[in-house]
Amino acid sequence: xxxxxxxxxxxxxxxxxxxxxxxxxxxxxxxxxxxxxxxxxxxxxxxxxxxxxxxxxxxxxxxxxxxxxxxxxxxxxxxxxxxxxxxxxxxxxxxxx
Length: 97
What we know:
Layout: E1 7-19, E2 25-37, E3 40-42, E4 47-49, E5 53-60, E6 67-73, E7 76-82, H1 87-96
Antiparallel strand pairs: 1-2, 1-7, 2-3, 3-4, 5-6, 6-7
């Protein structure tokens, strides 16, 4: 696969906490795609060019396969809760930079 055709996707989870009518806390989990191509890194809420992304790092949780993938951009650091191994995503990012 060449640089121009590389596309890697990883699924991340966002959890929204709300209070319902009976004052009970509800957690709503939604799953989204974090995609990297030769030009951009695309999330559900934003699109970053590769020039805007400085690094990608990962911090695993000790008790499971889950962890937090950090996207270091010129607009700040964005955390993504993931439940799979992100090594392919990180390797792809580093090969494109």
